[in-house]
Every structure is written in structure tokens, then in C-alpha cells.
Amino acid sequence: MKIQKCKKGQIRVLEAFFAALLIFSSIFLIPSATTPEKQDLSELYSIGMNVLLQLDADGSLSNFIKNESWNDLRICLQKMLPSGVWFNLTVLTTRGVQLNNVSISNGYPVSERKVSVEYLCVSSDSAYKVYIVRLQLARVGSND
Amino acid sequence: MLIITALAISLLLVSTFYYIFEVGNSGDNSTQASLNNYILMIKLGSTRTVLSSLVNVTYNGDPAVLTENLERWKETLKNECTFGLCVLNTQIWNISPYSSGFWIDWGANGNGVSSSYVKFNLTIYRREVEAQLEYLVNVTTSLVVKGTYSQVEGLEKHIELTCEIFNEGTPALAQNFTVHYNNGSSWTQAQNYNLNDYGNGTYRITFNAYIATSTVQVSVGAHDLRQVYVQTNTTCTQV
User: Fold this and answer.
1) Strands A104-105 and A85-93: what pairing?
2) Chain A residues whose beta carbon lies within 8 Å of the beta carbon of residue B80
3) Which helix (H) or strand (E) holds A96?
4) Is residue B233 part of a domain?
5) Residues 55-84, chain A: which have Cβ within 8 Å of B?
6) Do A46 and B2 touch (CB under 8 A)?
């Protein structure tokens, strides 16, 4: 009788083990399902940061800001960013005053899922200036 | 009953595991790449800060501008850092030939130097130290001038100058050359000189001038494309 009870217990333990395994395996699928979204945003961040670094490396970014050539800056961003990416750029002083009086964007945002890249641009003129460049990016065609 | 217990335990384990996974995930490759780009931005900003100060000083600015600009850069970085806390320490170079971070030598030997040198130490903190690095920023514009002259007629002399401009030792382009010569009593600006640009950082300047003495002294000043001014004097040899 005692031996029979023990065997029943063993089966239960096995049952519990398999149930746990089943639950584990199903729940492990959740992170892999959410990863592409995160990857997409970090990819957008990386694209935005690289574009700003490229623009700043030869001094173009600070020249656009200094000369208030907002339209030229918009055209330049449009050429450098991949198609299918919405952008909106804002230039601020270190005190938070917005410098661009016109919108530097390629349209209206079509996605709620935006990424914001904050870039510090230093002017190399004799009059030292630091600008905060905020670039918002989103994928066109994202349904969220 | 046993299955429900197993379910509850599993959920507990999974949620713990998932939390650890998410926390660990924050330091993944994409975050590391973003951090690397952010560090590039800081290094570029540091170089620009030093460059701006050098431009200012070569336009007769106060050398204290370097300290002021560095303080502003450090403060901005501290307030606007998107990667936690960015602490930037600076050490202005004071070892000869540098003084207060600058080496401005516009001597009479045909070699002119405008240079600035600063050592940076950057630490980015988040939950712990994310990045720590030390880097040097050296912005140097140098000008080498060699000159010859030949007698034309009377006091008139034909002067030929070869100017080479360098940025951190690499040939660079220049603009806005100003040429002066010593006519025996005072320095006069050469108005109508011919400038040949070889496109590789070498320029040939020729002009005629009335100089009373047999010693022909010239002074050449130029801006590189970064707006740093440099000048030097030299004595031309007769050919």
C-alpha cells in the first residue's frame, strides 16, 4: 500500500514538471515577440545619431544653425535619412529657447512610436556656442 | 490542484527570470553602439571647444577663454547627458612650449605655430560606471614660409614665397593670406600679389616691391579653413 502511494506521488511530480516545462516554454516566446519593436527603435536611434555625427563632423550642422538655413538643413536630412523615415528636428539653446522658427520636418508623424535623439552641437567659431539638437524619428508605415 | 500549484510556482519563476533578463538586456549591443556614438559626440564637442578657443585667441582674444569654454562644455554635458551622468574633467596643458593650454609662436624663422592642447577625462555613470576614457585634444595650425628675391631695377625687387600650411602636421588648405614686407623703415602690406594654389596645402606668392635695404624681410599671415590664424616672418635670400 505504501509503495503504491509513493508511485502515485512520483507521477504527480512528473506531471508538475511537464506542466512547468510547458508554461516555461510558452512564456519564453513573449520576449522574442517583443524584441523586433525594440530593435527597430534602437536602429532608428542609431541612424539618427549617425546622421547628426556625419553632419557635425565637417561643421555643416553648426553652419546651418549659425546661418539659420533651416530649409537647407531639412533638405540635407531628407537626403541622408533612409526613405520611409519621418523626422522632426528642433534646435535649442542650452537655456531651452527654440531657435528654428520654422518646422524642420518631412511631414506629419504617422506613428506613435517615435524615438528622440538628443545631440550637442558645438560651434567652432570664436564666439563659443553649444546647441541642443533634438531629432525625432519614426517609421512611416508603422501602424501604431 | 497540483497543476495550479505548479503554474503558480512557474509564473513566479518566469517573472523573476524575465525581470533579470530585461535588466541584463539593457546593456546589449545596441545600447553599447549608442553609447559609443554618444562618446564620439562628446569627443567632437571637446575638439570644437578647444578649436573655438584657439580661433578666439588667434583673433587677439584672452587666453582665459579656454577655461571659460571648457567649463561651459562640462556644465552642458552634465545637464544634458542622456546616458546617465557624464562627468568630464579637463587638464589644460602647461608643459613648455604650452602655457595655459596655448602655444602661439609667430616667430621670425619662417615657422609659425598656433596650437592648443587639453587632456580630457570622461566618466559616464548609470547604475555603475558605463564608460571611462581619457583622450587628448590637440589643435595645431602651422605655417612654413620660405622666400627668395631677385633684383629688378633700382630698388625694385621681385619676391617669391612658398607657403605650406598644416593642420596637426597634415597638409591643409588656407585662405585670406596677408603679406607684409619691410621696406627699410616700416612694414607695408603687399597689395597686388599673385597667389598660386597647388591644392595640396602649398601656395606660391609672388610680388614686386621697392625695398631700400638688401635684407628683404616678409611677414605672411593666413587662416586655415577652421578659421585659426597663424603668421610668421622670414628673411628672403637673394637668387
Assistant:
1) antiparallel
2) 94, 118, 120, 132
3) none
4) yes
5) 56-57, 62
6) no
Domain count, chain B: 2
* B164: in domain: yes
- Determine contact: B235 vs chain A, CB below 8 A: no
Q: Does B136 touch chain A (CB under 8 A)?
A: no
Q: Are residues B78 and B134 in the same domain?
A: yes
Residue A90: give the domain boundaries.
35-139
* Residues B124 and B174 reside in one and the same domain: no
B79 touches chain A (CB under 8 A): yes
Q: What percent of chain A has pLDDT over 90?
A: 53
Among candidates A91, A94, A102, which has minimal Cα distance to A136?
A91
User: Do residue B59 and residue A53 have CB atoms under 8 angstroms apart?
Assistant: no
B43 and B125, same domain (yes or no) = yes
- The set of long-range contacts for B190-195, using a CB threshold of 8 Å and a minimum separation of 24, is B190/B159
**Same domain? B214 vs B135:** no
CB contact under 8 A, A27 and B18: yes
Return the exposure string of B76-98: e unless at least 16 CB atoms fall within 10 Å of the residue's CB, then b. Answer: bbeeebebeebebebebbeeeeb
Residue B43 lies in a domain: yes
ipTM for the predicted complex comes to 0.79
The verdict on B52 touching A (C-beta cutoff 8 Å) is: yes
Rounded CA separation B86/B98 (Å) = 28
Q: How confident is the model at residue A36 (pLDDT cuts 50, 70, 90)?
A: low
Beta-carbon count within 10 A of A41 CB: 17
Residues of chain B found within 8 Å of residue A46, distances taken between Cβ atoms: 30, 33-34, 37
Domain count, chain A: 1
Of A137-141, B59-63, B207-211, minimum mean pLDDT range: A137-141
Q: Is residue B77 part of a domain?
A: yes
Its domain, for residue B219, covers 142-238
A85 min Cα distance to partner chain B (Å): 19
How do residues A70-106 score in pLDDT, each as one tens digit? 999 999 999 999 988 999 999 999 999 999 999 999 9
A31 vs B contacts (CB less than 8 Å): 18, 21-22
Q: For the segment B145-168, what is each residue's pLDDT rounded down to a tens digit?
A: 999 999 998 889 999 999 999 999
Question: In this structure, is the dihedral angle defined by the CA atoms of residues A77, A134, A139 and A57, taken in order, positive or negative?
Answer: positive
